[in-house]
Predict the 3D structure of the following.
Amino acid sequence: MVVEDDRAIRSLLQSSLSVEGFEVQTAVSLSEARALLQHKPPDLIVLDLGLPDGDGAQLVRELRKQHSTPVIVVSARHQEQQKIELLDAGADDYLSKPFSMAELLARMRVALRHRGTTLSAAVTVHELEDLRVDLLAHRVLRDGETLHLTPTEFKLLARLVRSAGRVVTHRQLLCDVWGAEFTDHTHYLRLYMAQLRAKIERNPSEPRHLLTETGIGYRLADS
Ligand code: CA
C-alpha cells in the first residue's frame, strides 16, 4: 500500500512497483489508508509523512496496536525529528526524498525478509565480507580471527545484528542496550560506537559495517 498525496510520486510508485510484480493499492490521505487497512491489511506500507488530513506517524501508532505490517517512511529531508518519532513508534525504515526505486526496493526486501524471520527463527548469525557475528556462540570474527569485545560492545553489536540492514534510532539503541532511563545519553552511544568501529572496521573512519544515519541512528550493513 502506497500512502502519498503527491500525485506524481504516487503514480510513479504505483507503476514502478507493479512492474516489479507487486500488487499496489494507493491512498492519498490518512482516512483513505484507514479504510483500506480495515478491508485488508497489506504486506507492506510505503508511507509519506505530510498528508492532507494529518501526520503519517498517527497511522503508524494506530497500525502497531493491531498489525506488524512493515512500514517504510518516505519524507522530505528536513523532517528529521518526525522521522525519528516514526521509527520509535514502530516504522521499519525511512527514505529521504528524492530516493531511487532501487533504494526503495532494497529497503522493501529487507523489511519483508525481516518480518518473515521474526515470525520463524530470530537472526543469530550475521555474515558480511570479512565480518562474522555469531550471537549464540557469542563470537565475533574478522577474517577468521576472534575479536575481543566488552559485554556492552557485544550487546550493542547484537542489537544491530537483530535489525541488520535496517536503521535503529539512537533512542532504541540506548533503551535496548543501556536501559530506558538512558535514552538521553547519546554520548555513551558515540563512545561505544567508536570503540566498536576501531575493533570491527578495517578503516574506522570509512566504516563498511557500522553505518551512521546522520541525526537518526545507525545501520549494520547487510549487503
Ligand atoms: Ca506529502
Notes: The radius of gyration is 18 Å. Residues 101-119 form the longest helix (19 residues). The mean pLDDT is 90. The CA atoms of residues 171 and 184 lie 7 Å apart.
